[in-house]
Specification:
It contains 14 helices and 22 strands. It is of the alpha/beta class. It has 2 domains: 232 residues, FAD/NAD(P)-binding domain (3-Layer(bba) Sandwich), CATH 3.50.50.60; 162 residues. The strands form 5 sheets. Strands 1, 2, 9, 10, 11, 12, 13 and 21 form an 8-stranded mixed sheet that branches. It has a 7-stranded mixed sheet with strand order 7-6-16-17-18-15-19, sandwiched between helices. 53% of the residues are buried. It binds flavin-adenine dinucleotide.
C-alpha cells in the first residue's frame, strides 16, 4: 500500500502533523505502536474516579502555546493555575522554621530563575554550576529535576534558559490528554502497529511495521529521542552522524506522578498549595493537593530519585509520597485517601522516559534534529522544538512544522497564518480563576 506521507507516532506531534496534512488534501497514514492516541499526554479517566493526566497536564506559557487555542476551540473548561509558590517544606520530619523557609524559597527561586541568567555563562555549563551553597543548595537543586527531568549536573544551562516563559499556566479539569484524544478522532491511525524499519534508500520509502510493509513519498518520525536511541526503530541507511549525535545529546529525563483520590472534605482536596518533602538531601517529593480542581492529590518525583524509585519496583514511588504526606499532615491523613496510581515512564516501552533535556554542550541538538535527514525523512516531537521543548505545545508545534516541510517539498506551501488546528470544531472556553 502506498501513501503520500506516513507519520510514525500518534502523540501530540503526530496528531498535529496529520491534521495539517489532511487539511491540505495530502493522503496520509499514521502508524501508532500503542492502542490509543496521545503518547506521553494521556488522561486516565478510570483509576481514580476523576480525570488524571498520567503525563503532560499543564498548558505552560499559555499565551504562546497552541494547546491553549486547542482547549478554547474544543470549549474545554480551563483553570488558571495559581499555586502561589511553595507553602511549606519538611526535611525528614521537621517543618522548616519561618527564617529557614524564606532562605530555602530564595535559593529555590534563584536556581529556577537561573534560566534567565545562565546564557551569560560561557561554554554552556551544567545547571549544577548554579546550585547555591549550603545549607539549602543540596535540597533546592531538585527544582532542576522536577522541571527538566534530569539532575542539575546533567542539564545544559543554555537549554534550560531557552524554554520560553509567557503568561498563563493552565490546567484542565478533564485533562490535557482528553484534548489530544478528541483531536485524534477520525484520523487514519493504525493502532498497535509499531514501525520497525524505515528504508529510505528507495523511492518511495519502505516502512516495515508489525502488520506488514507500506510505502510513502515522505515519512515524519515523532517518537521520543529515547526510543530513537534504543534502536528498536532502525533506519536504512543509518542516520547520519550529526543526527545520531543530536539524538544522544537529548536524552529523556524522568518525571513520575503519584495520583491519589481523596475525600471531598480532606485538606488534600483543596487546590492551591505546593508542598515539598525531603526525606534526605537526595530525595524530593513535590505535593499538589486539589490538583486541577479535582479531589485528587498529585505528587511528583523527578531525576535520578525518580529513576531509583522506578527501579525499586511498583509501589516504591507511592510509599515515598505517602511518607511525604504523613510528614506534612500527620499519620491520620492516610484515612482521607482513596484509590491511587503511579506512573513508570522510564519503563514505558514506547516512551522510555518523560521528556528531553539537552546535555551540557548540546543545546543546539534540537534544531539539528528538526532539520531532518532530507525533505523525505523528517523528525518532529517535543525534542525538536527549540523553545517549547519538553511540552505538549512544543510537540504540537513541531508536528505542524514538519508537515509544512513536507508540503513545501511537494510545492504545496500553507499560508504563513494557516490555522494551527486545521479541521477542528471551535467552541468557547476561557480560564476560570
Ligand atoms: C510525567 C510527565 C509530566 C509531564 N508534564 C507536562 C506538562 O505539565 N505540560 C506539558 O506541556 N508537557 C508535559 N509533559 C511532556 C509532554 O507530555 C510531552 O512533551 C509530549 O506529550 C510529547 O509529545 P510527542 O508527540 O513529542 O511524543 P509522544 O507523546 O511520545 O508521541 C510519540 C508516539 O509514538 C509512538 N511510538 C513510539 N515508538 C513507535 C514505533 N516504533 N512505531 C510507531 N509508534 C511509535 C508512541 O506510542 C507515542 O504515541 C510531561 C510528560 C510526562 C511523562
Amino acid at each position: 500500500m502506498s501513501h503520500q506521507v506516513v507519520i510514525v507516532g500518534a502523540g501530540a506531534a503526530g496528531i498535529a502533523a496529520a491534521r495539517c496534512l489532511l487539511a491540505e488534501g495530502v493522503q496520509i497514514r499514521v502508524m501508532e505502536a500503542a492502542a490509543v492516541p496521545g503518547g506521553r499526554c494521556i488522561t486516565d479517566t478510570t483509576s481514580l474516579g476523576h480525570p488524571f493526566d498520567r503525563g503532560g497536564s499543564w498548558i505552560h506559557s499559555a499565551g504562546i502555546n497552541p494547546m491553549a487555542d486547542l482547549a478554547r476551540q474544543q470549549g474545554a473548561a480551563i483553570i488558571e493555575d495559581d499555586p502561589g509558590g511553595l507553602r511549606a517544606v519538611v526535611v525528614g520530619e521537621q517543618r522548616l522554621s519561618d527564617d529557614a523557609f524564606k532562605a530555602y524559597v530564595r535559593d529555590w527561586r534563584r536556581l529556577a530563575d537561573g534560566r534567565d541568567r545562565a546564557p551569560a555563562a560561557a561554554g554552556d555549563p551544567a545547571m549544577g554550576t548554579f546550585v547555591p551553597g549550603e545549607p539549602w543548595g543540596p535540597y533546592v537543586r531538585h527544582v532542576v529535576a522536577l522541571l527538566s527531568g534530569v539532575d542539575a549536573g546533567a542539564c545544559s544551562s543554555e537549554d534550560f534558559s531557552r524554554f520560553e516563559h509567557a503568561p498563563g499556566e493552565w490546567l484542565l479539569p478533564r485533562g490535557q490528554g482528553s484534548l489530544l484524544a478528541a483531536a485524534a478522532e477520525g484520523l487514519p491511525i493504525v493502532y498497535e502497529n509499531p514501525v520497525h524499519r524505515i528504508d529510505s534508500r528507495r523511492d518511495p520509502i519502505r516502512i516495515q511495521t508489525r502488520r506488514g510493509e507500506v510505502e510513502a513519498d515522505a515519512v515524519i518520525v515523532t517518537v521520543s529521542t529515547a526510543v530513537l536511541a534504543a534502536g528498536t526503530l532502525t533506519f536504512d541507511p543509518e542516520l547520519p552522524g550529526h543526527m545520531r549525535d543530536a539524538i544522544s545529546g537529548l536524552p529523556l529525563g524522568l518525571l513520575n506522578k503519584v495520583g491519589m483520590a481523596v475525600r471531598e472534605d480532606s485538606p488534600l482536596a483543596a487546590p492551591g498549595a505546593v508542598l515539598m518533602h525531603h526525606g534526605s538531601a537526595d530525595e524530593a517529593v513535590m505535593i499538589r493537593p486539589g490538583f486541577a480542581n479535582q479531589p485528587v492529590v498529585c505528587s511528583f518525583v523527578g531525576g535520578s530519585f525518580a529513576d531509583a524509585l522506578e527501579r525499586e519496583g511498583v509501589g516504591a514511588a507511592t510509599e515515598a509520597c505517602m511518607e511525604a504526606l504523613r510528614a506534612h499532615y500527620g499519620g491520620a491523613i492516610t484515612r482521607d485517601l482513596g484509590p491511587g496510581l503511579e506512573t513508570a515512564w522510564r519503563s514505558h516501552p514506547w516512551s522510555l522516559g518523560a521528556y528531553s533535556a539537552a546535555l551540557p554542550g548540546h543545546s543546539d541538538a534540537r534544531s539539528v534534529l528538526a532539520s531532518g535527514v532530507d525533505e523525505r525523512l523528517l523528525f518532529a516531537g517535543e525534542a525538536t522544538d527549540t523553545t517549547l521543548f519538553s511540552s505538549v505545545g512544543g510537540a504540537w508545534r513541531s508536528g505542524i512544522r514538519a508537515a509544512e516541510q513536507c508540503l513545501k517539498a511537494m510545492g504545496q506551501a500553507r499560508p504563513p497564518d494557516g490555522n494551527p488546528h486545521p479541521g477542528l470544531r471551535s467552541g468557547a472556553g476561557e480560564p476560570e480563576s
